[in-house]
Amino acid sequence: MRRFVTILLTAAVLLAGFTVLAETKGKVAVVISTLNNPWFVVLADAAKQRAEELGYEVTVFDSQNDTAKESTHFDTIISAGFKAILFNPTDADGSIANVRRAKEANIPVFCIDRGINARGLAVSQIYSDNYYGGVLMGEYFVKFMKEKVKADKIPYAELLGILSAQPTWDRSNGFHSVVDKYKEFSMVAQQSAEFDRDTGFKVTEQILQAHPEIKAIWCGNDAMALGALMAVEAAGRKDIFIFGFDGAEDVIYAINEGRLIAATVMQFPKLMSRLAAEWADQYLRGERQFPEIVPVTVELVSRENIEKYAPYGRK
C-alpha cells in the first residue's frame, strides 16, 4: 500500500510539474493567410510543431486570404491572452493595423514568409528574398527559352499573385529586371491569378485563347504554375514552358518527370517557421535583440539539378 501511495504521489507531482510548465509557457497563435494552398499548410505545420516542441500550446488560424477574417483572429488572440503570434499576413498594407494592435497589447509578432509595409511593429519579419528569386528565375528563363525557341521574338505571359501581397511584386520586379533587357522577349499578357491553382487554370485558358502564340508562362507561385500546366496540357500544347516559384511538392515531381514545368524557385518554409518559433520563445524568455528584416535565401531548381531537391527544401 505504501508503495502504491508513493507511486500515486510521484505521478501527481509530475503532472503538477507539467501543468506549471504549460501555464508558464502559455499559448502561441499561428495566423496563416490561407490553408487552401499546400505550401502554406507546410508553413503552418512547421511553425506549430516547433512551438509545441518548445513547450507552448498552439492554435492555427486560417485567414482565407481575407483581411477581415484576419482582423477577427487578432481580436480572438488578444482577448484570449496569447503570448506571441507567428504571422503570415494577408496584405502588406491591410495587415499593419492588426500587428499594431497586437503590439499595443504587448503581444510580440513575428512575420513569416510575408512582411508588412511598416517598421517598428513586428519584432521580426522573416521572409524569402523574393526579388533575388525573381532575378534567378529571370536569368534561367532567358537562357532556357533562347535554347528552346529559335526566333527573333519570344512571346510570353505572366501570372501575378495577389496584387496586395508583397511577394507578388518583389518576384515580378526581380524577374523583369533581367528579362526586360532582352528585346526578343515580349510579354503579351500579365494577369493576376491570386496565387491560386484553380484561378491559374482559368486565367491561362483565357490567355491561350487570346494569345495562342505564347511560348512560356512565368508564374509568381507554384499553385498558379500547376493551374497553368493543367490548362496547357488540356489544350494539347507541348510547345509552352512554365516557370514557377515555391518548391511545392507537385511542381518538384513535375520537373523530375520532365513535364512542361521547366523550373521553380525553392523557398524554405520549414526553416522560416522554425526560426520564427524559436525567436518567439527567446523573446518570451527576455531576449530583445532581433533583426527586424531577415531575408532568407532561395535557390533555382531546374531539370539540371532536380536530384538535389525534395518538396519544400533540399534532400
Structure commentary:
Helices cover 46% and strands 21% of the residues. The chain has 10 helices and 14 strands. The chain has helices at residues 2-25, 38-53, 67-79, 96-104, 130-148, 166-179, 197-210, 222-234, 249-256, 269-284, and strands at 27-32, 57-62, 84-87, 109-112, 124-128, 154-160, 185-192, 216-219, 241-243, 261-266, 293-296, 299-302, 309-310, 313-314. Helix 7 crosses helix 8. The strands form 3 sheets. Strands 2-1-3-4-5-11 form a 6-stranded parallel beta sheet, with helices on both faces. It has a 6-stranded mixed beta sheet with strand order 7-6-8-9-10-12, sandwiched between helices. It has 315 residues and is α/β, with parallel strands linked by helices. The longest helix has 24 residues, at 2-25.
Quick overview of this protein structure:
The chain is of the alpha/beta class.
Task: Report the principal-axis shape.
Answer: elongated
By DSSP (H or I, 4+ residues per run), the number of helices equals: 10
Q: How helical, in percent, are the residues?
A: 40-55%
CA distance, first residue to last residue: 55 Å
Strand-pairing-aware structural class: alpha/beta
Q: What is the residue-mean pLDDT, rounded to a whole number?
A: 93
Number of strands: 14
Largest sheet: 6 strands, parallel
**Cα-atom radius of gyration:** 23 Å
Beta percentage is 15-25%
Spatial strand arrangement across the major sheet: 2-1-3-4-5-11
Stretches where pLDDT falls below 50 for ≥5 residues? Answer: 1-22
Q: What sequence of helices (H) and strands (E) makes up the elements?
A: HEHEHEHEEHEHEHEHEHEHEEEE
